[in-house]
Amino acid sequence: MPEPQDLRSQNGVLKVDLTVRNISEPGKPSRSCYVAGDGSESPTLRVHPGDLLILSLKNDLTDPDHASAAPSHAHAVAKNAVAKNNNDAPCASGAMTSTSTNLHFHGLTVPPVCHQDDVLKTSIQPDDPPFEYRFRIPADEPPGLYWYHPHIHGFSKAQVLGGLSGAMIVEGIERANPEVAGLPERVLVIRDQDLLNPNAPPDKSEPVVPKMLLDP
Prior knowledge:
By secondary structure, the protein is of the alpha/beta class.
């Protein structure tokens, strides 16, 4: 099982280009992924406290079969068109559709403002130019594992279960716990997903699970 590609900060700066893409096949749920400029999927972002993160996000999502929105798709498109020529249009778009997206840096103590960690108004559409996230990791940010994912209200679950997530590591865990210094490290990202037919009987080729393991 290959690990996600590591993207590490250099000289206090981590610059990342990500494109969000999806694919749909008949009879199967939609699958999505973040793709970096080098072609790696959902890379692990590694930063240090005090580093500057500059992340460019391009939305290439397509969903021709679902045009629902809140409150309506037409209303959302109209709101986005008002400031279409403004580089900050996604900051006030507020559009929430199946093809809208944004980024939430889960666990980081960065301000909930546009270009940082706002998820209430920031909404990037497929026809928008690449949107830049730019913020500095707080100098007192605890080291450890964080993660990034979309947070479009009403559509977050579908996008995250579809595969849109990635790990983010604030380096320095050996300073918090000297005992782990020098230990080998491996990143595993385990994603959940909804079953298409959750009540279907098990396939005959599936191993039989003893009942004692199924009882709560």
